[in-house]
Specification:
With about 140 residues, the protein is of the alpha+beta class. It has four helices and two strands. The longest helix has 29 residues. Belongs to the IRAK1BP1 family.
Length: about 140
């Protein structure tokens, strides 16, 4: 009697633990196929949001540094616009010389890793720093 079980994991470590446990308990009576990696639409959307938020944070920190250089204080954002988002990776390319079954687990992970970048445009209010002597008077 043959049976096939397909399990979807969202945690790579748990997947490895379950595979190791099955192999340990069932020995040669079980065959574990190489994993197939994919990204859910929700995971890709979360990645896009995280990258955009990080880009806005980086822009704000750079603007703060420039303001400090000129003795000014950075105020509130007046405009934040997402200019460009790029995504790459996240799949096993079909044009690879090796078939997906011949790839090592590390190569599969590397090919399935998704990357994203985001370019933002931001305009911030600039506040002049008050002189400390004026505050004391």
């Amino acid at each position: 009697v043959h049976s096939q079980v397909c399990i979807i994991f969202s945690d790579f470590g748990k997947m490895q633990n379950v595979c190791n446990l099955l192999t340990e308990k069932l020995g040669t009576s079980v065959t574990i196929s190489p994993p197939h990696f994919y990204h859910t639409p929700e995971a890709v959307d979360t990645l896009r949001r995280q990258v955009c938020v990080a880009a806005v944070g980086n822009t704000q920190r750079k603007a703060q540094e420039v303001c400090r250089l000129f003795g000014q204080a950075l105020g509130k954002p007046l405009l934040i616009r997402e200019e460009e988002t790029k995504e790459w990776g996240g799949h096993i390319d079909s044009h690879l010389p090796n078939s997906p079954d011949s790839l090592t687990l590390q190569e599969r992970i590397q090919n399935a890793t998704a990357y994203a970048s985001c370019r933002v445009f931001a305009v911030f209010e600039i506040k002049g720093k008050e002189n400390r002597r004026n505050k004391l008077l």
